[in-house]
Design goal:
alpha+beta; Aspartate Aminotransferase, domain 1; 7 helices; about 45% helix
Length: about 200
């Protein structure tokens, strides 16, 4: 599995423009490409795929950069280095870094995790998602009950998109704010789009 993959010109452009974490991201890139993944630019970030399935994404934040595993919940994590990017995250896990030396030191471990992620993809393993583990806010449920087309459109969204909307609507403290959010997002939901699409 050491077949080195080709660099993607759109990702080259991303690295040329990068203002922070450039050395760290370049090191991530070298490691990931040495594992034979296909390099793409998705969501404005370098994304590495195996047979068109997302395996890892390079992320840069203010305080750190990270190697995010799209289905990290499936990994065994013997070094206990994977973390959830957010409290509500079900599938993704990331490994944060603040220095290129840390990445160099962890290279064998990172390659092992990437190979495990590829093996999970080859085996067809899926993350078991909890379907709407959060309660549907009353304001959204009322609108779904009143409007069959809206209910059909909402149910046609992926579980992750449904969940993002539910979390967004539920975050509002007042009922009138939740109602306003549902109304504001209605056109987007009817078009089959997620909250951030």
């Amino acid at each position: 599995m050491n077949a080195k993959a080709d660099k993607n010109p759109t990702v080259d452009a991303f690295f040329r423009k990068a203002k922070t974490w450039r050395d760290e991201m370049e090191k991530f890139r070298t490691i990931v490409l040495s594992c034979g993944l296909t390099e793409e630019l998705k969501w404005g970030k370098p994304c590495y795929t195996f047979q068109e399935s997302n395996i890892v994404i390079l992320q840069g934040f203010k305080e750190f950069c990270a190697l995010l595993f799209a289905k990290g919940a499936l990994l065994k994590d013997p070094k206990n280095i994977l973390e959830k990017p957010g409290e509500s995250t079900q599938a993704a896990r990331r490994i944060p870094f603040t220095d290129v030396r840390e990445i160099v030191k962890m290279e064998p471990v990172l390659k092992a995790y990437i190979r495990e992620a590829i093996a999970a993809e080859k085996a067809g393993l899926k993350v078991e998602f909890k379907k709407n583990p959060e309660p549907v806010p009353e304001e959204l449920q009322n609108r779904l009950d009143e409007t069959p087309a809206f209910k059909t459109a909402f149910e046609a969204l992926t579980p992750g998109r449904q969940r993002a909307y539910i979390l967004y609507f539920s975050a509002a403290k007042q009922s009138k704010t939740r109602e306003a959010r549902v109304e504001k997002c209605r056109p987007q939901i009817l078009k089959g789009k997620g909250l951030d699409d």
